[in-house]
Amino acid sequence: MRYDTWMAIASLALHVMFVIYINSLYMALTRPLAIGATIAQPWNMMIIGMFLFGIPGFGLAGVAYLLAKGLARKSEVRRAPSMIIIAQGAILLLGMINASSIEKVMNDYYIEALTNRGEMYLFSIIPQLFMVGSIPLMGVGAYLYTIKPKQQRFKSNL
Length: 158
Hints:
The chain is built from five helices and no strands. Helix 1 (3-28) packs parallel to helix 3. By secondary structure, it is mainly alpha-helical. The radius of gyration is 20 Å and the shape is elongated. Helices cover 77% and strands 0% of the residues.
């Protein structure tokens, strides 16, 4: 496989890890409280997940797009990264929709604590921002799928 396909796979893996991380964090915040099982700083955990998995996934998708567009000479070569980028956008969109639905059943203790610190609106806006970001990602993948192959230029002897 070519570099563009590997970059697309790496960006897909980052966003799959981000979806799993955010959904498991939100699920942990829905559980009843137990002694020693309280999550102390959920907003810090959200930031860590965003900067480890979420934002770099967009960067690697951009690199995969640029590599696929610049290096490929045949349309078959471009189809693999474009389909992976489209799948990445769809997985991110569905995962953030699921996280938004989980957020509505969060434990009252966490809702009260996050509201007192002014961080509760951030728990609802982060999945929405990534939902909005997944739509252009699918558009870039669809555009990459429709690009025509580059034409070979021949030098004339005249």
